[in-house]
Structures are given as C-alpha cells and as structure tokens.
Design goal:
Distance between the termini: 16 Å
Low-confidence stretches: none
Helix content: 55-70%
Number of domains: 1
Strand order of the largest sheet: 1-2
Number of strands: 2
C-alpha cells in the first residue's frame, strides 16, 4: 500500500527508515552505495525545488509523458534493478551525512507544503501531475530504495 507523503505520520515513518541506514548499509541489488542512493533520491526533489537540472527536450518529454509517466505515477511498486534516467545516475562518491540530511529536509518540506500545493504542479519530465501522482512518485521511489538497503 502506498502511504501518503503529505501526512505527518508517513513523513515520520520515512525519516525513521532513513535513520536506520548507516554509512555501512549494503545494497541487496544495484551498483550504488548508500550515500549515492540518498543522493539519487534527492534528485527527485532537486528537480522540483531547485533549478539545477536541465529539462528534457520537447521530444524526450513527449516520450516520457506517454510511455514512462504511467509507470512512475501509478500505484504499482518498482521491481529491483529497474533502469533509471541519466539525470538520476550518481557515479561519484557522496557524503552520507550530507545526503541523509538533505533528503530528510526535502521529505519534511514536501509534507509541510501539502497536497494542495502539488495539485496540478508541473513535473520537469512529465508535465502537470495530480497530488496523488506526486505522492505515488515520491513514495514509490523512496520505498524502492529503502528496501534496496534493507530498511
């Protein structure tokens, strides 16, 4: 069941899962270490809250909107080793504590802004999304990677 990231109880559960990670946490699948995973999760929020990622071209955005969007915003969980978009690939080393703090802050900010803020809000890759689609996008992605690291 996909929990509601706009509810404080879900925010607290997500933060608890993050706090169960350590710099020594090992992945059950994939190539990222735990700090890279946290940085990877931060990209979703960077695309929303910061102006540091380039929007896809019109053609790529059309492809994403019509072929990828439904898999990202529906309520079906991701399978292990699901492919990721190039913007989400974290190849360099990251600082665990910094990425952890950033992710917690983004999760809290999202919850505090609430569902109404996200209703109809534009995604860099998919166009306007409903609050429910934003919720699914956020929760599924976090849950997928927290399971990857056993939390």
């Amino acid at each position: 069941m996909i929990l509601n990231v706009f509810e404080n109880s879900t925010t607290q559960k997500l933060i608890e899962r993050i706090n169960n990670l350590s710099n020594e946490s090992k992945a059950k699948w994939g190539k990222m270490n735990v700090a890279q995973m946290l940085a990877h999760c931060n990209v979703t929020y960077e695309m929303l809250y910061e102006n540091k990622h380039k929007a896809p071209s019109f053609f790529i955005k059309l492809i994403l909107k019509f072929f990828v969007k439904k898999h990202v915003v529906n309520d079906v969980y991701y399978k292990p080793n699901t492919a990721t978009a190039p913007a989400f690939i974290i190849a360099n080393e990251r600082e665990f504590t910094i990425e952890k703090e950033r992710l917690i802050n983004y999760i809290i900010k999202t919850q505090q802004l609430g569902a109404n803020y996200f209703e109809g809000k534009e995604s860099l890759s998919f166009g306007a999304l409903t609050a429910n689609e934003w919720n699914n996008l956020f929760y599924k992605h976090l849950d997928h990677h927290f399971k990857q690291f056993g939390v």
